[in-house]
Amino acid sequence: MASSEMNNGAAAGMRPNHLRIATEEAWATREMLNLYRRMLAQGKIDDPGFNSLWGFYLNSPSARATAIIERLQEMGEPRIRDMDASGIDKQILMLTSPGVQVFDAATAVAVAKSSNDELADCVRRYPTRYVGMAAVAPQNPAEAAKELERGVRQLGFKGAILNSHTLGEYLDDPKFWDIFAAAEALDVPVYLHPNSPSKGLIEPLLTRGLDGAIYGFGVETGMHLLAIITSGVFDRFPQLQIVVGHLGEALPFWLFRLDYMHRATVNSRRYEFMKPLKKQVSDYLRENVFITNSGMAWAPAIMFCQQVLGMDRVLYAMDYPYQYVPEEVREMENSPLSAADQKKFYQLNAEKVFKL
Q1: pLDDT one-digit tens code per residue, 263-288
Q2: Which domain holds residue 39?
Q3: What is the CATH number of the domain that holds 141?
Q4: Does pLDDT of 4 surpass 60?
């Protein structure tokens, strides 16, 4: 089908010649949300980002908060109806942020296992509509690696979901690298999803109301991914693939400066711990990172990322239910992309990285 025919068909509501696979879609268990409520009520967590974000969603009577909490927990026909209404064929499901990464280690390990079992049951009920990603507990990296293996080998999951920092600790610390080793050995990706900025990062954002998805999530997760790269994770695990949303948390727009300033910083020996890498920062972003457009249904920015990272490295995502806008799904079907490149964006790239 020619591109113009494809675009006209999309505009008229006809089905395109590709599936639409949404690759960053959130869900939550009642168990986990009840634990969040208990922690908030007892004031047990010294994490202003968690308290701000989940204090709002679990306590606000606003239409946005109540609708999102309802949709996060709904894994049956109402979610399927939302998918059908927006033309989504499959959702790749991830335990919503911060997932288990806000609990003590023992609780985190237990809730990861129970959540994965619940998700596996759901995927079995809707095998053509849902794909699962394993929740793991970085608080115990060895157990996280075991749970990832169980999720992939026994439950049929297609990778791990890591909701960025864990109680203020980041994955560039080698103590967490058992998780990366397991993902590489299993040949599955890690999805690095935003979390509220950590305690040391959040104050100037929180006091201005910029700590959430409007800006703070991108600051936190973009920094995290860059730290993973500069720490040498991909030199240690060259086959590891990381998926990150929101058009790469702005890093694709900084490629030139990231390469230049990383090289300058290493050469200046400003930081003893920052060592030379085998490749440039941009090389790792093109070879070890896939990005999705979750929450960014904006053709000019998507097409720029496709241009600088490669057409095979950019995937479709909605960011359900936090950004459920059915008409945004077809944004790239009304773009100048060929039908073949649209199929990569909506279907083939997801099938490749998640091995669907």
Answers
A1: 999 999 999 999 999 999 999 999 99
A2: 3-10+18-354
A3: 3.20.20.140
A4: no
**What is the pLDDT at residue 288?**
99
Provide the number of structural domains found in the chain.
1
pTM to 2 decimal places? 0.95
Contact criterion met (CB below 8 Å) for 262 and 230: yes
